[in-house]
Amino acid sequence: MKNFFLVFAAGAALFCAVPARAANLTGQGISTNDNLGAERTTFSNTETITLRQKVNNTVSISSSIVFVFSIISPAGAEGFRHEGNSAPGTAGGAQTQLSGISISSFYTVPGSYIFRGKATLGTETVTQEARFTISSPNINLIYPPYGARGLSDNPLMFRWIASGASRYRITVSDSAGLYNPVHTAVNSGESLYSYPENPSQPREQLVADQVYYWKVEGLDSSNNKIAESNIYNFSLKAQASSQSRNIMVSALELSSPALDFTKPLNFKVTVFNTGSSAESNIGVRLSLGGLSAQDSPKQIMFISPGEKKEVLFTAFMPSDQQESLAVACVDVFDDNIPDNCKTMLFSKNTGVPPPLKEKKKLTYDEMFAAITKRLGPDAAKSLEGYTFESLNCANCSADELAAIISALISGDAQLVNASVLDAIGDATAAAAAAPNSSASAAQLPAAGEEGPETQLDVQALPAGGINEWTGYTEAFQSPEAVSFAIRNRKEWKKVWKTLSSEDTPDVNFDEKMVVGVVSGSKDRAETVRLSGKRKTDTGVAFDYYMIEAPEGVRPPLPAYIFKVYDRSDEKAEFKRLDVLKR
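The structure corresponding to this sequence follows.
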């Protein structure tokens, strides 16, 4: 027993000696500090940071204590690493730090980062970690867009790109400086905020046609401001105006070729909000041959006015059907029920709709009658006594024009926003419409055939054209300049109506955009000029300047300029250059 006890005790002594040796080097703290030396756990991506670690050594050896600094991103990747700092291996405390590190050198996205410090002495290594948060000081506002006018959203939803802040403060005011705001609110960190439909204070009720200004500030956990957006402005539609709701299925098509009808077909449904109000929780359904698609229905959580959403489905074509009808519908009761669904007929022979029947041959009189019938009574009255001498179609072929006319007669197509215009010049008038002239026969080719070039007079649009408009307007009475980046015809038409009673100029918004600036009432601008477009880190920027009126002369109204540029869907910023005087 005595011998056994001695052996056990010796083994125990040996076991205790191992942790005692490992404890020679121990961690005494790790921290992240600002440029003033204060310990902090929240930073912005524009600051510098100091990394500090402390250890204690209980033995003196000839080796040095070697330190390693590393920073781990929210995604788990090592974005920063530094080696080379060291301290003598003498007994006692040791401390080291890295100062003035630019956070932008390792910043990737807003979120929680890890500072990991390692200290090594001989075979011993101590690892310490400290978490800290980095946010971006830039908050990008999304909706309402800058300069939006006539909004009818109910509720009005504010949206922005988050910066990583713990919460966000939304401020809405009727003054450009946000003095005495009509409404303020703080959310819980979401990148959206719904304006109350029935606010508690009368002043918080938004008034139609009043220009409101809004911005978003990012706050940390202690409610300190760490991020801020630019100031955007908007207005609401007048109460007398009706609010329209229309969600339509604008397209139904295969997203991939139908090669094997024993396998599911892949469909793409395009849903388009053509109304004036945002919609949420829209159900989209698809059936093929009377059977619902495997993943039908699907939900569209939110769709803004003018926005399109694509929804994908997979569906089997019934094995006992040679032809099947695909039907896509949205579950919404809006102002235009007929366009809530779209159909497409499929044949197992081709996987596409069966070929169209051969088109009948039409005379110019038949074409003329089809078009005037759909122009309405006023336009038809203006064209009494006229017949077609020739037919012009810019940017379309003879086959395409033939298909358009046939669709008008069959009822598959309709004329939208068409009107009768006075002919300009004798030659144009003679080519467009000739009173009491005899009708010429126009032979429309069957599908797949190429008609004679002499049957249709297809003229190309003239090169160039007006791409800049300037003048004075009373529509925008703001102390500060107002800028626009217009990317769709609906918005362009709305803005143009405030500037002119003439027809809205035609712009191809698939390839172009319209950029505009209206001077403020305090600018005394005689002229506004756009000097160019350039690429920036956050999108594109448009530079502009103003020429002041001579001393003692006050312009009658704010000056404006609108100009066509190549389309860019990136964020648009406006940079005002020095004001020029005459």
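The chain has five domains: 23-135, 138-236, 247-347, 356-460, 468-581.
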